[in-house]
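Reply to dn_fold:

You asked what the input looked like. This is it:
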Amino acid sequence: MKVQRIAVLTGGGDAPGLNAVLRAVTRTAILQEGWEVLGIRHGFEGLLSNEEGDIIPLTWERVAGLLPRGGTILGAASHSNDQLFTIGEGGEVIVSEEAKQCVRDRLAALGVNALIIIGGDGTMTMGQQFYEAGIPLVGVPKTIDNDLPVTELTFGFDSALDEATDALDRLHTTAESHNRVMIVEVMGRNSGWIALHAGVAGSADVILIPEIPFTISKICEKIEERRQRGRNFSIIVVAEGAAPLEGAQLYKEYLGQVSLGGIGHWVGQQIAEQCGVQTRTVVLGHLQRGGSPSAFDRILATLFGASAVRLIAKGKFGYLTALQCGDIVSIPIKDAVGMQKKVPIDGKLVQTARGLGISFGA
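and this is what came back:
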């Protein structure tokens, strides 16, 4: 197949480094292959809307200056059109036949020969279904949670980690000044990579992650141990998806929307009541998604974007880029969906944290 024009979209939530991928895709496609590049706004929704403003040309000039810029100039879409997508019993997105035909027709009308999708598990799950429906596409993995199993790291994770670590550094001084227990809630729905790495890098005393159910009594033991050594403050970092041993993940509802969260405040309240100490809770939330990407994420995003263009040039559709053993490789998209990379509870970093005296509340 002779490629003359490609398109690219960003799905799911935003992450630092998305614009760096768009820049790398555009420059590599134009300079090395002589292709035209179109940007699809708002993920797959932009291909389904038939709105003229949802398709923008990505030229050399349009992507100039994007490398340090956070977010995505194409807009992110973490929702779906209920008439075109349904949610299966396991929570997976099921693409309707109508959506598949609509995307095929739209790409054909645009003269697009191949599509690059940038996103996490949800985006790749949809992408695999579109690929099986005959749409030539390749993927670029993205999630700040770093929970995609086929790649050692995803861009956005390092930037989110820097933000969380900086917060822990800042909270140490106020916690020590007021003899308080400070709880920092970070992102991490089903995997605790951000919490674990930030907790070790930011010298936390307790790290709570989804992979290790915790008890308040064990946390209180750690706080009391520190008090016995004259350390009248403690720092606790908790992933939003962490859960107590005899409990479940916490969800909150606002304006009819239900989302994961609230575990940080719950832990703070329980510690105050059971340990008799003052607590304060900070929820970092979307601060971890925003801002300029780190140098590492800029480089990784650039490598991924350029590699995606090369996959198209080779006709290697149905694959995504990945980082393995320090090298950029290609993996079938089907091998990247339906699974999550979780923190190994007997892994080196968990062992190291325990050896440093960090408690996991278990």
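Residues 157-178 form the longest helix (22 residues).
Hope that clears it up.
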